[in-house]
């Protein structure tokens, strides 16, 4: 049997299926099941929504005997309709994502509802609901299988499913394109930063060696790293200003910090580390932070010592920042 014959047979098999897209046959949709039957990889009695009449239709097409519906795939039943309890629904959209024919409408964190005319009764919206607010209610009385479903309904359901699949494919492609664009942008930014660093290094080396013309002119620019560093310094400086202002207010009221004595070794280590970070960032100490007699290294790394005639005062400890 050629590929063309297989595809043609799959098309004819798919035309006989009820198109509920319920996956009870063991395949993700009606089309994959039809292709599996055409290849002889699946039985033609695995579609519960089609029921006994559906099995008979497929048997006639395939020239096979009519057999019973495989109970492992389910039972023939009246067609149900999904009904959402709108008082319990939390608007998580999981049922909307599960519906194969887009029969559920709603928005995130808003009430969802089922469009009865579009629901195929596939049950797929029930398992993902985290609050168990969806019920499957039979709406066809005693009618089951193809007696509870029509060919126009099947054709419309197939069309909606195909449109949904096409939309999801477009959304996946768009998402992948956005991710690729972000990655390429990050790579380009990294390459630009590396090139700038290399050029600056070469210019500095040439200038140190005194080689004429070795230092190529570099267009002044501020890299993303420089921007981030400047922003960090500005934030730290603003925090220091707030702390100084608070300290001045406390001093004016005759109050002072309560944590300047009996500082533990761990806290003192954190304070020293904070001071080292400040010096590394080039943040000048405010003289008001260090009273006369203190011995705290300044931004150049030298110590501000007291007069030999004045006893050294105990360094004032800061809370770690």
UniProtKB/TrEMBL annotation:
Region (Disordered): 204-229, 247-321
InterPro entries, A to Z: 4Fe-4S_dom, 4Fe4S_Fe-S-bd, 4Fe4S_Fe_S_CS, Elect_transpt_cplx_RnfB/RsxB, RnfB_subfamily
Superkingdom field: Bacteria
Biased composition (Polar residues): 295-309
Keywords recorded for this protein, A-Z: 4Fe-4S, Cell inner membrane, Cell membrane, Electron transport, Iron, Iron-sulfur, Membrane, Metal-binding, Repeat, Translocase, Transport
UniProt-listed SUPFAM superfamilies: 4Fe-4S ferredoxins
Gene3D superfamilies: 3.30.70.20, Electron transport complex subunit B, putative Fe-S cluster (1.10.15.40)
Biased composition, class Low complexity, residue ranges: 204-216
Keyword Ligase part of the UniProt annotation: no
Domain 4Fe-4S ferredoxin-type: 80-109, 110-139
Listed PANTHER family: ION-TRANSLOCATING OXIDOREDUCTASE COMPLEX SUBUNIT B, OXIDOREDUCTASE
Protein known as: Electron transport complex, RnfABCDGE type, B subunit
């Amino acid at each position: 049997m050629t590929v063309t014959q297989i595809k043609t047979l799959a098309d004819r098999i798919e035309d006989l299926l009820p198109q509920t897209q319920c996956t009870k046959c063991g395949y993700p949709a009606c089309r994959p099941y039809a292709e599996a039957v055409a290849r002889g990889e699946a039985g033609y009695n695995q579609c519960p929504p089609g029921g006994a009449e559906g099995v008979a239709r497929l048997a006639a097409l395939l020239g096979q005997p009519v057999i019973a519906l495989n109970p492992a795939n389910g039972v023939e039943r009246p067609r149900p309709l999904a009904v959402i309890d709108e008082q319990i629904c939390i608007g998580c959209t999981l049922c909307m994502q599960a519906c194969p024919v887009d029969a559920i409408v709603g928005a995130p964190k808003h009430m969802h509802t089922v469009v009865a005319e579009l629901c195929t009764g596939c049950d797929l919206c029930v398992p993902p609901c985290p609050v168990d607010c969806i019920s499957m209610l039979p709406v066809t009385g005693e009618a089951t299988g193809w007696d509870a479903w029509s060919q126009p309904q099947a054709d419309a359901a197939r069309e909606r499913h195909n449109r949904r699949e096409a939309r999801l494919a477009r959304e996946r492609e768009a998402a992948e394109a956005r991710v690729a664009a972000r990655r390429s942008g990050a790579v380009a930014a990294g390459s630009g930063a590396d090139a700038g660093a290399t050029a600056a290094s070469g210019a500095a080396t040439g200038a140190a060696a005194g080689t004429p013309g070795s230092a190529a002119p570099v267009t002044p620019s501020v890299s993303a790293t420089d921007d981030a560093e400047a922003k960090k310094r500005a934030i730290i400086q603003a925090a220091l200003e707030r702390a100084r202002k608070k300290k001045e207010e406390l001093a004016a009221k005759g109050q002072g910090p309560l944590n300047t004595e009996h500082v533990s070794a761990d806290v003192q280590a954190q304070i020293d580390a904070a001071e080292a970070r400040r010096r590394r960032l080039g943040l000048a100490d405010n003289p008001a932070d260090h009273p006369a007699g203190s011995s705290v290294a300044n931004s150049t790394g030298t110590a501000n010592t007291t007069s030999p005639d004045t006893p050294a005062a105990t360094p004032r400890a800061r809370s770690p920042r």
